[in-house]
Amino acid sequence: MDETDKTEHYQARIEAALDRWLPDLDTAPRRLHEAMRYSVLGGGKRIRPLLVYATGEALGTDPEMLDAPSVAIELMHAFSLVHDDLPAMDDDDLRRGRPTVHKAFDEATAILAADAMQPLAFHVLSSDPALTAHPGAQVTLVRLLADACGSEGMTGGQAIDLASEGTRLDAAELEHMYRLKTGRLIRVSILSAAACPPQPDIEREHALERFADALGLAFQIRDDILDVEGETDVIGKQQGADEARNKATYPALFGMEHARARVAELLETALAQLEPFGAGANYLAYLARVIAERDH
User: How many domains does the chain have?
Assistant: First the structure.
């Protein structure tokens, strides 16, 4: 199976798993559940679940054990996107090429849909049959996801992002924000696979941590680049939104040439961390290149 076939295989796997865990449209309250399904099943590259499965490949982990963390992380990602798009946050009208949840439904329904996805993520981790025989792994998975999404993770990064609009950050401050806002959920995608049996030795776990940290930064800086030079129809959201809000971004603060060079540097650093895993990490390396070089 080549990389394209493998991506399609794992994307189909995560779509089916998400569909199983999300409440059915016939279950009350129907409008809330419709909004949840709209936000989660409305497209997307599924980068984070793909990273879970790819890391599992590198470690020899049974994919059955990786479905729950993949679902939980994607639910938390969807939760963050719905909140980020709200008028009180980034006030975006377009996500994945169609109206954002608060535009397709209403603001209150969007907030409630996002709020419902967060506990559902933890329910999945605590209830999935493939994990119940491994309670230690379940506890670790819950902790990893909770830490990634709290005030010292994704939510804290968003707070810094909002507070930094119209200000000038230095490179260290900007990358700290990126590590929290975007990098922590990338990191938990990789480390969640490592938390499932068979767990890697400490040296390979540290290599995965370094890989995840470099890749998370590269992901966000590439996102900044696409906001400048991407096309709305391709990237699926409004091009130029960051500049319009006077956000602190890599291209705005340091220029496009420096931003591209930093992505290339981070990709090289990330790929170097995969050497101990040999050919088993080929798909993980492929995904890293896709993330750093993507056009949407």
Answer: 1
